[in-house]
Amino acid sequence: MSIYWNFESGSKWVQLMQLSIISARGLSLKGHNKLEAFVNLTISGKGNWKSKVQTDVIRTTADCKWDQRCEFTLNDMDSVLTISVNHRTVLGTTDCIGAIELPLNSLIHKRMPTWYRLCKKGKYDENGQQTKYRGEICLKFEFSNKVCSATCKNLSASSFSISTLHGSFLL
Q1: Regarding the domain with residue range 4-164, which homologous superfamily does it belong to in the CATH classification?
Q2: Which of 1, 10, 71, 171 is most buried, most CB within 10 Å of its CB?
Q3: pLDDT score at 39
Q4: Domain boundaries, the chain
């Protein structure tokens, strides 16, 4: 659980997750030699709530660098983060290049930028492992707590923002 009460002061602690979307490599989509790639990030938890954010579109052939960061305020560490790398077509529609689902509670101790394998959305083998390699995405997770004042007693399920990172990660 990611919400804590300080009974002496009556203040509430909330869990923050900063997610850095660093880069992708080996992106491929059948029938496309040039891609206009972007990342959709969706956090879904108990009930019907979801929070979504999208990166900028990058024109690429296989590898790209976003260096963008988003921040989510979380109410529940049992939530799932769905990362979907997409291609924007000439007609303005979206084709999924690859995706991955990550339980937030498995990410709490990840400190370094990590490459995650993208696979065809929803495709799993008999062992529950994803199949159909579609490239990789490099992400960095940071978790922290902050005090929520009495004015935020009606805390939303999640809030987010996205910004460009300054500086560079070395891998």
Answers
A1: C2 domain (2.60.40.150)
A2: 71
A3: 97
A4: 4-164
